[in-house]
Write a structure and sequence with these properties.
Length: about 140
């Protein structure tokens, strides 16, 4: 079985993060259709287990759209993508969304490290997308 905390541990090591905390974030029955998160010095990982009708995440000029819960479950490359920067989650009202919030400890304010980590994540996303593109 997939261990999400082990995955986080591996990703943080790849990004050079030595200490961090992991906290669950749970949006339940939101009336609003958009939730904005300022994650400039932290990371979020979508781990929703609740069926939803539509979910769009806009992060670092990347748009991820899951028209159905089945689509979310099928897209492993996006499902386990670390989100950072300004994150906008657009959803239909009354949908439950779960995320893990990963906060590096003692490193806030180090803009060079934050930028380096963003570049690592963007490169990894590009490589993953190149692998799954149809010929």
């Amino acid at each position: 079985m997939f261990d999400i905390l082990e995955y986080v541990k591996i990703k943080m090591k790849q990004l050079g993060v030595k200490k961090y905390t992991v906290k669950p974030v749970y949006f339940k029955n939101l009336v609003s259709t958009t939730q904005n998160i300022n994650a400039n010095n932290e990371y979020y990982l979508l781990i929703s287990n609740h069926p939803f009708a539509s979910l769009t995440i806009i992060c670092s000029d990347e748009i991820t759209n899951f028209p159905t819960f089945a689509e979310y479950q099928a897209h492993v490359a996006y499902r386990y993508r670390l989100l950072t920067g300004q994150i906008n989650i657009n959803q239909l009202p009354n949908i439950d969304v779960e995320l893990l919030r990963i906060v590096p400890e003692g490193e806030a304010g180090d803009a060079d490290e934050t930028e380096k980590r963003k570049n690592i994540l963007l490169q990894e996303l590009k490589e993953t997308l190149d692998k799954i593109k149809p010929n």
